[in-house]
């Protein structure tokens, strides 16, 4: 009896594992190369592909590499019990019930790198590295299914995401984009350095915001402010001649107010440059030279900026340049000032990404034995990822890495943790970024961490090189962060602050401002204002500080008058 029962259970288990699968067909004769993502959701508030994120409320996803890195491209792609998933790890863990299911195929291309390596990556196509909106990607319409151990789901990816026509609106805020005008110009710039690295023609986009009176004062030359931020179809800061309408009203209000101040001489007359530098790993390059992402620091600072200043009458000297940005842009602006200390005369960095890898968000890369858990003799606690300002945890580090692994293996998620890995890591033997930690287990690689420390830990670099960097950074460092930062970025800022307070020869005069209880991305400002009010007029608050410092520190004979009309 026991033998018969055991055999019956074995047959049922085997049938279940065979039946619990998703079969996906892409109706094309050409071989497929890329990454399939299948998403389950419980509601119709939006398509399933729009409901995946790093937090615990995320829809369920599964990812499969197809036709890349030696993996063959079958006619039918199968997701089964062995396919890695997030938030649940396997199809077998999904409860029986009704779901909306959708598939997306993120198309990859071969890149023959200047290093001699060949890698498969997904090029940005003007959407800012969004797999669920990338032009040309095949996908299926959502289908409602009843999922249980006995059913096989079949999907046909017979839809194609449309091409982007003209200058698109920013998909994140759906605010009005700013077409070219007398103040706003756009430049598509081919970088020889990046083209050599990527083995194909590679371009930077540049929005150039010209000051009021530019045409009327042909003999004037202007300081340059480089605004660092994520990819956006339009410029940052927002710049629009019309008032708010519909979705994205908050950004439209800020853009309209800034437009009024800018065009009526209420902001010092400078050139603002916003660079579009999306790449195959992310919507932004982090504006440094990287073994995996390429020489974006050199391309932007040595190629693009001189071209912009030459065409639009920039002063073209380090005393007359400043940089600013928040989050990714906060790290970039601080790194730019540190790596190019003579080329810039000040940085205003808000809520910067980790500036000290003792606080890599909530992970201590130097001392933690595992990135996902902290373990005691009898228990363990998961490492927090995201939080609300009140301390409520909304994601774990393990969950966030799993989420990104579903979106792409070998560091190809085009999301936050993997772009850090791509920027900061050496290139691996296979041509992809060396893993700083295992996305499935959390095991940290100390050899890769050492490379990060030596090349990109900003606090470590400042400490190591302070005798030469310190004198060049006097009066130039301004950092703001909320102490309730969503991603724990305030922890690294406090470590940097403490380190600089102890500096000597010279003693650092870096300015730090903390917002009690403020989330990501706090930009400082008057304490009586809300975070939103301070963010809305950040440019108007900061640019006068920049130009005042420029004039004060300008060398003898410098042009501090032609732009002061």
From TrEMBL:
Keywords: Signal. The keyword Signal applies. Transmembrane segments: none annotated. SUPFAM superfamilies: alpha/beta-Hydrolases. It holds the Pfam family Esterase. Residues 1-19 form the signal peptide. This is Putative esterase.
């Amino acid at each position: 009896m026991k033998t018969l029962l055991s055999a019956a259970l074995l047959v049922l288990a085997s049938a279940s594992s065979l039946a619990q699968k998703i079969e996906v067909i892409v109706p094309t004769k050409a071989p497929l190369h890329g990454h399939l993502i299948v998403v389950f959701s419980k509601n119709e508030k939006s398509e399933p592909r729009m409901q995946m994120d790093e937090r615990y409320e995320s829809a369920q996803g599964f990812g499969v590499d197809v036709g890349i890195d030696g993996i063959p491209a079958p006619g039918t792609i199968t997701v089964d019990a062995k396919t890695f998933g997030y938030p649940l790890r396997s199809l077998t863990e999904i409860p029986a019930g009704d779901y909306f299911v959708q598939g997306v195929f993120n198309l990859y291309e071969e890149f023959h790198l200047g290093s001699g390596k060949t890698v498969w990556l997904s090029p940005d196509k003007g959407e800012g590295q969004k797999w669920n909106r990338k032009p040309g990607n095949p996908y299926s319409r959502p289908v409602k299914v009843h999922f249980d151990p006995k059913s096989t789901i079949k999907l046909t990816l017979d839809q194609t995401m449309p091409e982007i026509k003209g200058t698109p609106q920013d998909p994140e805020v759906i605010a009005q984009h700013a077409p070219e005008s007398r103040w706003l110009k756009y430049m598509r710039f081919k970088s020889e350095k990046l083209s050599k690295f990527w083995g194909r023609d590679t371009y930077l986009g540049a929005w150039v915001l010209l000051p009021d009176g530019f045409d009327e004062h042909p003999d004037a030359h202007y300081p340059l402010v480089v605004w660092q931020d994520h990819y956006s179809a339009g410029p940052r800061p927002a710049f629009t001649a019309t008032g708010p309408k519909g979705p994205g009203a908050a950004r439209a209000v800020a853009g309209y107010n800034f437009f009024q101040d800018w065009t009526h001489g209420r902001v010092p007359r400078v050139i603002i440059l916003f660079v579009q530098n999306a790449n195959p790993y992310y919507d932004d390059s982090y504006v440094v030279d990287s073994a995996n992402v390429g020489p974006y620091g050199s391309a932007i600072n040595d190629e693009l900026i001189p071209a912009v200043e030459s065409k639009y009458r920039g002063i073209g000297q380090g005393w007359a340049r400043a940089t600013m940005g928040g989050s990714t842009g906060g790290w970039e602006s601080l790194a730019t000032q540190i790596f190019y200390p003579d080329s810039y005369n000040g940085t205003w960095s808000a809520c910067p990404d980790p500036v000290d890898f003792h606080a890599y968000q909530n992970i201590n890369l130097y001392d933690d034995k595992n990135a996902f858990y902290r373990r005691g003799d009898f228990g363990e606690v998961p490492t927090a990822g995201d939080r609300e300002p009140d301390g409520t945890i909304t994601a774990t580090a393990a969950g966030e890495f799993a989420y990104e692994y579903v979106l792409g293996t070998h560091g190809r998620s085009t999301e936050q943790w993997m772009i850090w890995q791509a920027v900061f890591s050496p290139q691996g033997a296979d041509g992809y970024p060396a893993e700083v930690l295992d996305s499935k287990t959390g095991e940290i690689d100390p050899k890769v961490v050492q490379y990060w420390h030596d090349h990109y830990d900003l606090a470590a670099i400042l400490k190591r090189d302070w005798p030469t960097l310190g004198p060049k950074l006097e009066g130039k460092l301004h950092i703001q962060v909320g102490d309730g930062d969503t991603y724990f970025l305030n922890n690294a800022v406090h470590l940097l602050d403490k380190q600089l307070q102890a500096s000597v020869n010279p003693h650092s005069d870096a300015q730090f401002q903390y917002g009690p209880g403020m989330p990501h991305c706090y930009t400082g400002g008057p304490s009586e204002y809300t975070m939103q009010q301070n963010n809305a007029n950040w440019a108007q608050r900061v640019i006068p500080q920049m130009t005042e410092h420029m004039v004060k520190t300008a060398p003898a004979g410098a042009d501090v008058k032609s732009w002061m009309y």
